[in-house]
Amino acid sequence: MSLAQKGRRVVLSGLLLLGGVYVRALAFTPVERFQGPAQKIFYLHVPAAVTTELAVILVGLAGVFFLFLKDPRLDRFAEASAEVGTVFAGIVLTTGPIWGKPIWGTWWTWDARLTSTLFLFFLLISYHVLRGAVTDAGLRARYGAVLGICAVVLVGFIHLSVYLFPTLHPQPIVLRPGKPGLPPEMLVTLLMSFGVFLVLYVGFVMQRYAIALQRDASAHV
C-alpha cells in the first residue's frame, strides 16, 4: 500500500470519527448556559485553531532543520504541513464568525486574535505563492524555510494576544494553571475533537507529502 493510500485511509477514518464526535457534541454534551447552542461550534473551531498552530510550528521546525541539513524531504514535509495548515486556518476563519455572530452580534471584529489569525492565513497563502513563483528548487526551499520560521513567530503572537491586548477571546481554558475551565463532559468532547483533528492532519500530510515525492520523481524522469 502506497503512502498516499495510507493517508486516504487515515483521512477517511478521521472524518468518520469527526462525525461521531459531533454526534456526541450535539446530543450528549451539555449546552453552555450563556452562549446556548451556538457554542457547539466550539468543538470544531478550537481544535482547528490548535491544529493550524501545530501545522505551522512543524513548518517552522522543518525549515530550521532544512537550513542546517539541506535534506529535501524536510522541505517536502514543510510544504505538505503548510498546505494542510492553510486549510485548517480557513476552517478557523469560517467557523469563528459563525460562532461570533450570535454571541458578539457581529460577523467580524478587529479583535487582536482574529486579526492576527487572518494575517497568519495570508502569510500561509504567501508561502504557497512564493513556492510557485520560484523555479530554482534550492532557492525555493530556503525562501520557504525562512517564511515558515516567520510564521511560527506569528503563532506565538496569536497565543499571547489574549494576554497582551483587550480581546473578546477568552484566555486558555484547557492549558492553563490549575484545573481546566470546562465541565468534564465538555472537556472530554473537546479532547476527543482535538484527537480527531490530529488524525486528519496526519492523514492529509501523508497524502500531500506523497504527491510531492511523486512530483519530484516525475521531474527527474
The figure for the number of domains is 1
Which band does the percent of strand residues land in? under 5%
Q: What average pLDDT do the residues reach? A: 89
Taking all Cα atoms into account, the compactness measure Rg is 19 Å
Low-confidence stretches: none
The secondary structure category is mainly alpha
Major sheet summary line: none
Report helical residue fraction.
over 70%
Straight-line N-to-C gap:
23 Å
* Count of discrete alpha- or pi-helical segments spanning 4 or more residues: 6
Which outline best applies?
Answer: globular
Helix and strand element order: HHHHHH
Give an overview in words.
This protein has one domain. It is built from 6 helices and no strands. The protein is globular and about 60 Å long. The mean pLDDT is 89. With 221 residues, the protein is an all-alpha fold. Helix content is 78%, strand content 0%.
